[in-house]
Amino acid sequence: MKKIAVFPGSFDPFTKGHEDIVLRGCHFFDEIIIGIGHNTQKNRTFSVEVMQGLIQDCFKDNKKVKVEIYSGLTSHFAKQVGACAILRGLRNTTDFEYENTIAQVNNHLNSDLETVFLITSPSLAYISSSIVRELYKFGSDVTAFLPYPLPKS
Ligand code: ADP
User: Tens of pLDDT along 71-120?
Assistant: First the structure.
């Protein structure tokens, strides 16, 4: 049976840290679906549609990776796409505290769904979407943190 994992997140924006988790996840999953969580209550800096296009471009030569937009619960989305696992990255103990709770709730909602964590590569651990957004808003060049060129605005 095909082993499918969902890599869910806000990805506002998708960074080199996220790319690293996907590429490493490809070693043990047949397919990785990057799920861009769409929360209509949240104001984004990079729209989900723009981000989907940029991530798709970034993985255009990688047949294992797909990019979808979803709203609602991650465990429902995972079930809908036939995933056996949720893939997440862990940077530090703050991530751990948060992820631990979410993983347990997801397991309660769907006991067939495992959450698989990858420890961030040390050279990318300091990258966060929130810092990139902040720099971007103040006009800093953020290309070093992103695995794709940003379209000219
Ligand atoms: P969310 O809003 O769900 O936390 P994010 O887009 O911030 O979504 O992150 C998605 C996943 O990627 C999370 O598991 C997060 O811990 C992980 N992640 C974020 N930044 C990095 C990084 N620099 N290296 C590895 N994993 C990361």
Answer: 999 999 999 999 999 999 999 999 999 999 999 999 999 999 999 999 99
pTM for this entry: 0.94
The closest of 31, 30, 48 to 39, measured between CA atoms, is 48
142 alpha carbon – ligand 1 mean position (Å): 17
Mean pLDDT of the chain: 95
Task: Provide DSSP, 32-96.
Answer: EEEEEE--TTSPPSS-HHHHHHHHHHHTTT-TTEEEEEE-S-HHHHHHHTT-SEEEEEE-SHHHH
Catalytic residue among 24, 38, 79, 91: 91
Tokens of 80: 């809908």
Ligand 1: distance of its center to the CA of 17 in Å? 7
Question: Which residue among the candidates 27, 42, 60, 137 is catalytic per the annotation?
Answer: 42
Q: Is the CB of 18 under 6 A from ligand 1?
A: yes
The reply to whether ligand 1 has any atom less than 6 angstroms from the CB of 10 is yes
For 113, phi then psi, to 5°, come to -95, 120
